[in-house]
Amino acid sequence: MTIVVGYVPTPEGEAALAAAVTEAQRREEPLHVVNSSRGDAFVDSRYVSEDRLAQLRERLDGTGVVYEIEQQVRGHEAAEEVVDAADRVKASLIVIGLRRRTPTGKLITGSQAQRILLDANCPVLAVKAAQ
């Protein structure tokens, strides 16, 4: 089994990655990090650049967790990429980060998070970034 984490270089993405690493260590399972661009080009600021990718690898190397990083630029929504990856690797868990919401915004979960929660074929752990 594998743990899949949707990662973007934001406080929410960092919280998801930290939680995923903790779960991977606790369960002794590998980690599959999914980072996808929203479009068909590397212009999305949420897509991890080569420099940041090297930093991410260095950070993960220090955890002792077996991992792989998947980056897709296919024009698919992030939720679709995460759920597809989880199905492909037969994930035991998906970890995602959630943005903090205003009282009104709490009525509606973010569309990508909501799609993952509804479409995933395994448990989903949703975490918030520390304030």
Could you describe the 3D structure shown?
- Helix 3 runs parallel beside helix 4.
- The protein has a five-stranded parallel sheet, sandwiched between helices.
- By secondary structure, the chain is of the alpha/beta class.
- The longest helix has 17 residues.
- It has four helices and five strands.
Element string (H = helix, E = strand): EHEHEHEHE
Q: Mean of the pLDDT scores?
A: 87
User: Which regions contain 5 or more consecutive residues with pLDDT less than 50?
Assistant: none
Query: Beta-sheet strand percentage?
Result: 15-25%
Q: Kindly name the structural category.
A: alpha/beta
The gross shape turns out to be: globular
Concise synopsis of the structure shown:
With 131 residues, this protein is of the alpha/beta class. The chain is 37% helix and 23% strand.
Helix and strand layout, with pairings?
Layout: E1 2-6, H1 11-27, E2 31-36, H2 50-61, E3 67-72, H3 78-88, E4 91-98, H4 111-119, E5 124-128
Parallel strand pairs: 1-2, 1-4, 2-3, 4-5
Helix pairs in contact: 3-4
Notable traits:
131 residues; alpha/beta; 4 helices
